[in-house]
Amino acid sequence: MACRNRGIGFTCMAEGSGISYLEPSDLYALFGNALDNAIEATEVLPAPDKKQISLTVRRIEDFYSVHLQNYTQHRLVMAGGLPQTSKENKLEHGFGARSMQLLVEKYGGEITFYQDGDVVNVYLLLPCRAPET
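Predicted structure:
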């Protein structure tokens, strides 16, 4: 609904039963941060054909691959492998990507942010089952 209300096309192909071990609050925070960032970058685009977000979750052997892709009009500024906020108030913004990184690492996974032209890609790799503690 958040995408529809902003005129953003949202495509989701997801089969994530193997990551159901994630705590619900962590799952919500992880996908919520990723989608909030994508919506924020996409809703300001002037070209309607660029107002698209794609989310794919699929199993690859013993891992789940999560790929979120959206258009943007800004170049990502990276530091330590994480995109930095473009907002002026750095004290109140810029924690989403770091939060996502910490959550993915908590479950033994990896996260990568990558920009190719005007397309931002977020890749997550999560084990199919909870890591041994």
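Summary: The first strand starts at residue 9 and ends at 14.
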